[in-house]
Design a protein that fits this description.
Helix 1 packs across helix 3. This protein is about 25% helix and about 25% strand. A hairpin with a 7-residue loop joins strand 8 and strand 9. About 10% of the residues have low confidence. The longest helix has 19 residues. It has three helices and nine strands; from the N terminus they run H-H-H-E-E-E-E-E-E-E-E-E. By secondary structure, it is an alpha+beta fold. It has two domains: about 50 residues, no CATH class; about 90 residues, Cupredoxins -  blue copper proteins (Immunoglobulin-like, Sandwich).
Length: about 150
C-alpha cells in the first residue's frame, strides 16, 4: 500500500508540469494513469466535502422554530427566499436550511453575522442590533445572495 501511495504522490508532482505539456502525451504514457486517478480522486473529495461539512456555527443561535414571526428566510433550491427582507431593529431573523446541502449565511462585511456551516435541516438566528442594509451570501455557493434591511 505504501508503494502505491508513494507512486500516487510522485505522480501528483507531475501535475505541476501538466499545463506545460501536451495533455495527449501525458496521458498516453501507461504509468501516468496514476496521475489521472489522483486528480480525479482529488476533485471527487473536494466536491464531496461541500455537502458533508460539519456544523461549525460561529454566531447567532442555532435551532428553534421557524415561522410565525414573518422574520424567517428559507434556504431552498440554492437560493435565499425571500432574497430581501426588511425588519425593525431588535427583531430576530431566522434562516432555515431546507436544501439538501450545507450552506452558510455570511454577511458580506464578514463581521455582522456568520452562521458557519449550516447542515441540511439546520437553522440560524440573528438578532438585529444596528440599522442598515446588510448584504449576505453563502460562502460555499457564491451565487447565493440576499439582503437584510434593518430599519428604526
Amino acid at each position: 500500500m505504501k508503494k502505491y501511495l508513494f507512486k500516487i504522490l510522485n505522480q501528483i508532482k507531475i501535475a505541476w508540469h501538466f499545463f506545460s505539456l501536451n495533455y495527449k502525451t501525458l496521458f498516453m504514457k501507461r504509468n501516468n494513469i496514476f496521475l489521472f486517478i489522483a486528480i480525479a480522486l482529488f476533485f471527487t473529495l473536494i466536491i464531496g466535502s461541500c455537502s458533508k461539512s460539519n456544523n461549525t456555527n460561529t454566531g447567532g443561535t442555532v435551532g428553534g422554530p421557524v415561522g410565525g414571526t414573518g422574520n424567517s428566510i428559507s434556504i431552498a433550491g440554492m437560493a435565499f427566499s425571500p432574497s430581501s427582507l426588511s425588519v425593525k431593529v431588535g427583531a430576530t431573523v431566522t434562516w432555515k436550511n431546507n436544501d439538501g446541502f450545507t450552506h452558510t449565511v455570511t454577511s458580506d462585511d464578514g463581521a455582522s453575522f456568520d452562521s458557519g456551516n449550516l447542515p441540511a435541516g439546520g437553522s440560524f438566528s440573528y438578532k438585529t442590533t444596528t440599522v442598515g442594509t446588510f448584504d449576505y451570501h453563502c460562502t460555499i455557493h457564491s451565487g447565493m445572495k440576499g439582503t437584510l434591511v434593518v430599519t428604526q
